[in-house]
Amino acid sequence: MGTFGGHILPGSFFILISLWWTVNIFRYFFKSKTKNGKPFRTQPWYPGPLVHNFPVESVVKLGTVTFGMLAELATAYEDGAFKYIGNGQHMTMYFFFGLNGAMDLLRHYNFHLPNGIEAATGILAYGIEGFIFYNHLHGRSHMDIQVHMYLFYTIVMCVFSIFLEIWHQDWVLASLSRAYFTLMQGTWFCQVGFILYPPFAGMQQWDQTNHEQMMIITMIYTWHCAVDLVLMLLIGAAVWVWMKSCRLLDQVNYQQLSSEAVLVVPTSKSANNGINGHLNRHMQLPESDSDEV
After folding, report:
1. What DSSP character marks residue 141?
2. Under a CB-based contact definition with an 8 Å cutoff, are residues 90 and 1 in contact?
C-alpha cells in the first residue's frame, strides 16, 4: 500500500461494499414496514438483484482480496528477494477479509459452521487490520502517522459497529453504522493516497512536518464524516423514491417507520442470554426477495 494505487484499491473496495450494504439495508428496512413485510434483521451480506440465490457479494470479496494479495506479492520482490515487509503485512490484512468472504460463501452453501461465524470473522478481519496499522507506523513522518491513526480510529469503529449489530439485530441504525464506518474507511483510504502520494503532475506536495497543514488534515477528516453521512442519507432517499415508484411501499406503516430509530434496551431477562445467544441468532442467511423489482 506504499503507493497511490495501493491506497486506492482497498479504498475503492470499502466504498463499493459499503454503498452496496447501504442500498440493501434501506431496501430491506423499508420493505419490512409494509403490511406483509418480514421484520427487519441485520444480515452479513446481501444477494444480487438479479441472481437471488448466488452470493455475488461473497464472490466479489474473494476476487478483490485475491487480486490485492497478488498485486502486493508482485511488488514485494526486488532482485529475487522478498524485500518489502510492508507488503507482507498488507497481504495478511487481505487474507483475513478473504477468510470472511469464504465463511459467507460456505454458510450460503449450507456447510455446517457455527451461527454467527460471518460476524466473528468480520470482527477478526477489521481487528487484524487495525492491529497491523497501529504497529505499522514506526519511523514515519508526523503527518503519515496522523492520517493512519485516523484510519485506525475508523477501523475500531467498524469493529464496534459489528458488535452493535450482534446485540441489536433488529435495529436498522446498527446495520447502517457498519456501512457508515466502512464507507468512512474507504473514502479516507483514498484521501490518504492523495495526501501521501499525489498522483498527478503539478499537485502540491504536503509538508509532512507542518503543524498548520496537519490541522487542515484533521478538518478534512471531519468533512469526510459529514459528506459520507449525507451520501448515505441521499441513498436512503433514492431507495425510498425508487421503491415508491415501483409501488413497493403502498402499505407502509409510517408511524412504525418513524419510531424505528428508537433503540430498545434489552430487558434483564433477554440480557441474561449473553453473547452466545446473540451470536446463535445473529446474521441468518440472507433471504431472497422473489417479488422485488
Report:
1. -
2. yes
Task: List, as one string, the DSSP characters of 260-291.
Answer: TTSPPPPPHHHHTTHHHHHHHHSSPPPPP-TT
pTM of the entire structure? 0.85
Residues 6+ away with beta carbon under 8 Å from 268: none
* Distance in angstroms (rounded) separating the CA atoms of residues 47 and 34: 20
Digit-coded pLDDT (tens) for 217-239: 999 999 999 999 999 999 999 99
Q: How many residues does the chain have?
A: 293
DSSP secondary structure letters along 97-115? HHHHHHHHHHHHTT----T
Q: Give the H/E segment covering residue 182.
A: helix 172-196
Q: Could you report the per-residue pLDDT of 43-68, keeping only the tens digit for each?
A: 888 877 666 678 888 899 999 999 99
Residue given cell 496537519 in the structure block: 214
pLDDT tens readout for residues 9-32: 899 999 999 999 999 999 999 988
For residue 9, which of 193, 152, 231, 147 has the smallest C-alpha distance?
A: 193
